[in-house]
Write a structure and sequence with these properties.
By secondary structure, this protein is an alpha+beta fold. The chain has one domain (3-221): Endonuclease/exonuclease/phosphatase (Deoxyribonuclease I, Chain A, 4-Layer Sandwich), CATH 3.60.10.10. The protein has seven helices and twelve strands. The protein has a six-stranded mixed sheet with strand order 3-4-2-1-12-11. A six-stranded mixed sheet has the order 5-6-7-8-10-9. Helix 4 links the parallel strand 7 (111-117) and strand 8 (144-149). Pfam families: Exo_endo_phos. Residues 12-220 form the Endonuclease/exonuclease/phosphatase domain. InterPro entries: Endo/exonu/phosph_ase_sf, Endo/exonuclease/phosphatase, GPI-anchor_lipid_remodeler. This is Endonuclease/exonuclease/phosphatase domain-containing protein.
Length: 232
């Protein structure tokens, strides 16, 4: 176990596109990044999808903390040596014609991690951010990290709502001067993927991987962030 394992939590957010294609490339990208926590968007769905997600997790040295059921378009994978408590899924309100969405959350080594995958419609994003803020973020008894695909550029309403008024959360990539585009993966132009970090967790670094496999593994590039854990 190295120094990063002891005092630093590495959070990676990545849209896996349902593991429909280029799974070997996805495994390569995740293994190279060596995350402690992988915030997944678009995991494979259904019973067979859960089996495929567990196999993917095993190939990357991770385990599934939250997947399937109410997590819907999200999942949370964690390395075996990290403590996981309160792992659960939150179903988000759904309207016919839209994708059924959810959120995955767990406390990892004392940090509440929330995985989100917001919708394509601004009105839906607004409703879901409001619910997530009330149910999972406000009143938390410890530091919080929100990671996921916001389907919105920095400075959009969802970003503003989640970091409102200089509150507890800040955009780790901006703090670390790593505000690089993540979408589309082959020729990235915009950043819609985010790791928002509690101000009680110092940001040690952030980067968007750019190895060859990243351009073909998914339609998104991942974002990787290191934060310093609070003293136990």
């Amino acid at each position: 176990m190295n120094a990063r394992d002891i005092g630093t939590l590495r959070v990676m957010t990545y849209n896996l596109r349902g593991l429909r294609e280029e799974v070997d490339a996805l495994v390569e990208v995740v293994r190279a990044a060596r995350p402690d926590v992988l915030a997944v968007q678009e995991p494979p769905r259904g019973l067979r999808g859960r089996v495929r997600l567990r196999r993917f997790a095993a190939r990357t040295g991770l385990r599934v903390a939250v997947g399937g059921g109410g997590a819907r378009t999200t999942a949370l994978l964690v390395v075996p040596h990290r403590s996981v408590r309160g792992a659960t899924a939150l179903r988000l309100p759904w309207r016919p014609g839209l994708t059924r969405r959810g959120a995955a959350t767990a406390r990892v080594d004392g940090v509440r991690v929330v995985v989100v995958h917001l919708g394509l419609r601004a009105s839906e994003r607004s409703r879901h951010v409001d619910l997530l803020t009330r149910r999972l973020l406000h009143g938390s008894d410890g530091p919080v990290v929100v990671a996921g695909d916001l389907n919105e550029r920095p400075g959009g309403p969802s970003w503003v709502a989640l970091t409102a008024g200089g509150g507890a959360l800040q955009d780790a990539a901006s703090v670390a001067d790593a505000d690089h585009p993540t979408y589309p993966a082959d020729v990235p132009r915009v950043r819609i993927d985010v790791v928002l970090v509690d101000r009680r967790l110092p940001v040690l670094g952030a980067h968007v991987p750019d190895a060859a496999a990243v351009g073909v593994a998914s339609d998104h590039r991942p974002l990787v962030v290191d934060v310093h854990l609070p003293e136990p």
